[in-house]
Amino acid sequence: MEIVLITGMSGSGKSVALNALEDAGYYCVDNLPPELLTEFVGLQQQRQSQRVAIAMDVRSADSLPLVPELLKSLRKQGLAVKLLFFDAATETLVHRYSETRRKHPLSQNLSRSEASDTKHVLMEVIELERELLTELRELAHVIDTSLIRPSQLQGYVKDVLSTPAAQLTLVFESFAFKRGIPLDADYLFDVRMLPNPHYEPSLRALTGLDAPVIEFLRAQPEVQRLQDDIERFLRHWLDAMARDHRSYVTVAIGCTGGKHRSVYLVQRLGALFAAQWNTVTRHRDAHEA
Fold this sequence. Notes:
This protein is of the alpha/beta class. Helices cover 41% and strands 19% of the residues. A five-stranded parallel beta sheet has the order 2-3-1-4-5, sandwiched between helices. The chain has a four-stranded parallel beta sheet with strand order 7-8-6-9, sandwiched between helices. The N and C termini lie far apart (42 Å).
């Protein structure tokens, strides 16, 4: 049985991911108390369920410390368990709560006087939530939802879940510095010093997925040198990370607009590492205006 455990910040898109998994044929449960995880998995084994998705978060704050040991126990039984952590910038979360007018799960413990300054209190409880979820975040594959649409998020989740659970997976992600750095990056490379196709009128509207842009960047010696440097660095350290039982490593590559140089390098590096490692490539900002 394949088990996907979804956790992360309130308002970060966990419900969107859970709905996507339900559509994909997973038996989904939201807000399962950690104390019931072992019994629930046993029940699903009796029912011969093949794929199960479970959401746990700060609504079960008191028992969240139990989760790491519970996951170890399930894996010792030979079960494939993937842990996904959904995150977003604090300002993004505050904005989402303001739009929906929903209460944060941790705000229910506040007195009326404390709740007078809604935005200030919301930022405080979000930071408290981050602290409570720190250990789970370190064990999980992190997906930053600050700047991605629900449809993109569904695609990210499906890409990650399509990779085998037993081997380290490399996620290469392109992004635009002008829209902010991804929170889910383990390694980040700045490629803004490279020749920019944006200044070629015939290439401006294209992306690093298009043949004319690929040909332009492939002809630049600086681009190849930087690609070689990144490849050399990763090949040197990936075996050590795999021995450390890392499940996912996210390599973010950014340029100014996230359309040309970063996209090209993500595609090239993804192809170079695909023969040895599970690889996923994604482009956060390639098709943004």
